[in-house]
Write a structure and sequence with these properties.
single chain, alpha+beta, five-stranded antiparallel sheet, flat
């Protein structure tokens, strides 16, 4: 009985053991089957199916984007996506397909459903790493020093310990580094070893002192309490502008430069302290190298303050060549009267001319050109000949009189009408001439204006040594206006000579001379061209300009010489 019970227990254990082994085997193969299924699903999910074996690279990328929902990024300048490829199978895995397309020249990286394609970097066995440290003169590390590889855009900076390191670029043969830091001198260092120790020096550059010249002494502006404005001539120099006063417009705070006329040679009005007087002169005082300049023509204060034709005369500095000027100092407050008296109440403009500089003799030539286009009739919106004659015809039809306007009737439709009334011409001749006038369309702006070319020239020689300082210059200026017979010429000569006779004695010599000539028409040609009827012929039978004769206004033609 016991044996049988034992056998039954043994047989039960054997059966349980077999069942456990069978369960383990079944679980193993089931797990492997699931893995294979997932592997197949994943393989199918990362596979691409084509309809044709031949296509472009760009078309293959489009299939990847549509089927697998991947974005493909590449550079067209690096990868030729228009080249034709032939895939070996119509169904390929993503990795297999990319390796087939890119081969060994490109590599790819997959991030967040994005495929980034880039060319493979060529390994350079000669590439090395450059290290170093940057210190100041006290051997303290300098953080934040800017380091630039000369000839490239590669840049870096030192860390908190003044250290730096970077791989040396392989495309640079003569490797040089530029070190720069605020307050330090910029250094250029040639890389001869893998470790560099750089010591930067303090920059000793100082700001130039601003010296104010009052005509009696030179004062440091930091020690000056008066209201003074100093400008360098190089900062306000303008091409073609021939006079200093025009260049000062808008350059000096508190100074008003009023340019009332565009006529060649007309001087603007300058006001520094406003209208400080009613009957006295409001013109500033001009001082050239310590010498007070007077106006070329003695005028009364009322004439000086007016804004009419007196501007055409010019002012005290009209003959100075701006190329000879080095610096302008404007004394604006009442303290200037302590130097030059009551005549400086309207302000003082100090002019300092150039002198030679230490070194070899310097020869300098400067030239400037300017072009002025003449006004055009098409820009003026004036009546043509037909419109103008029809206005006169309408006046005749309505019985209006021409005598009230002061026109004597020597030319134009009115002249023909008076000749008809005086039985000097027949009605047939009158109609023939009127028809001719309607087709005349004289362009007065073409006959009275021109395209003007202006030019300035200056030649100077300067130099200095321990005993002598010299500056010589000659200049010529030709300024032409757009109006006929409107031009100005100026010749200049200037010299400054300083000689050191001994340690306690210096001699200075200065000479400045100018000769200017200005031509202007006797009438306002713009008003004449704008208001004169275009039905009038430009020249009469004698070759003179035609014109209207009026009781008040133009009494003769703009020019008194025939057109020969």
């Amino acid at each position: 009985m016991k044996k049988k019970a034992y056998d039954r227990a043994f047989n039960l254990q054997e059966r349980l053991k077999k069942k456990f082994i069978l369960f383990i085997c079944t679980l193993f193969w089931f797990t492997m089957g699931i893995s294979n299924v997932f592997g197949e699903i994943k393989m199918d999910r990362d596979s691409v199916v084509f309809k044709d074996n031949q296509m472009t690279v760009e078309a293959a990328f489009d299939v990847i984007t549509k089927q697998l929902k991947y974005d493909v990024f590449y550079s067209e300048s690096e990868l030729d996506v228009h080249q034709m490829i032939q895939v070996p199978r119509l169904k390929m895995g993503l990795a297999e397909l990319l390796n087939f397309i890119l081969k060994t020249e490109f590599t790819y990286e997959i991030k967040n459903r994005t495929i980034i394609i880039s060319p493979k970097r060529k390994e350079n066995s000669e590439q090395r790493e450059i290290r170093g440290i940057v210190k100041d003169e006290d051997q303290l590390p300098l953080p934040g020093v800017t380091i630039l590889v000369k000839g490239t855009t590669i840049g870096l900076s030192t860390n908190a310990k003044g250290e730096f390191h970077f791989p040396a670029p392989s495309n640079v043969k003569d490797l040089r580094l530029l070190f720069s830091f605020v307050g330090m001198e910029t250094q250029e260092v040639e890389v001869k070893s893998d470790f560099l120790s750089i010591t930067m020096k303090m920059s000793m550059n100082q700001m130039d002192e601003v010296i104010v010249r009052t005509g009696f002494e030179n004062i440091d502006k930091r020690k000056l309490t008066s209201s003074v404005v100093t400008v360098k001539m190089d900062d306000i120099m303008e091409p073609i502008t021939t006079t200093l006063d025009k260049m000062l417009q808008g350059k000096i705070p508190g100074m008003a430069v009023l340019q009332q006329s565009s006529t060649v040679g007309a001087a603007p009005k300058i006001r520094i302290r406003g209208s400080s007087t009613i009957v006295g002169s409001r013109e500033p005082l001009w001082v050239l190298d310590g010498i007070v300049l007077e106006d070329p023509v003695p005028l009364s204060p009322e004439e000086l303050n007016s804004m009419d034709q007196v501007n055409l005369i010019g002012n005290a500095i009209s003959g100075i060549n701006p190329e000879d000027i080095e610096q302008i100092d404007v004394l604006k407050d009442a303290s200037a009267t302590a130097l030059y008296g009551s005549k400086a109440a309207n302000g003082v403009i100090m002019i300092t001319t150039k002198k030679g500089k230490i070194g070899k003799p310097a020869i300098r030539y400067s030239m400037s050109l300017g072009f002025t286009h003449r006004p055009m009739t098409s820009q003026m919106h004036v009546m043509n000949s037909k419109d103008r004659v029809e206005v006169s015809e309408e006046m005749v039809e309505k019985g209006l009189q021409f005598v009230d306007s002061g026109i004597t009737g020597s030319v134009g439709y009115e002249g023909l009408l008076f000749q008809l009334y005086g039985n000097k011409i027949s009605y047939t001749q009158f109609q023939k001439e009127v028809k001719k006038m309607k087709e005349q369309n004289t362009d007065w702006f073409k006959y009275l204006f021109r395209n003007a070319l202006s030019h300035n020239h200056t030649l100077s020689v300067s130099g200095a040594n321990e005993t002598i300082n010299y500056y010589f210059s000659v200049g010529y200026s030709s300024e032409r206006g757009s109006s006929l017979k409107e031009d100005a010429e100026r010749f200049n000569f200037n010299t400054n000579l300083d000689i050191k006779i001994s340690d306690k004695m210096n001699a200075s010599f200065g000479l400045s001379a100018s000769n200017g000539t200005t031509h202007r028409p006797g009438v306002d040609l713009f008003q004449y061209a704008y208001t004169t009827s275009r039905a009038i012929v430009p020249y009469d039978e004698d070759g003179y300009y035609n014109f209207y004769e009026v009781g008040v206004g133009y009494q003769n033609d703009p020019y008194s010489t025939p057109n020969l």
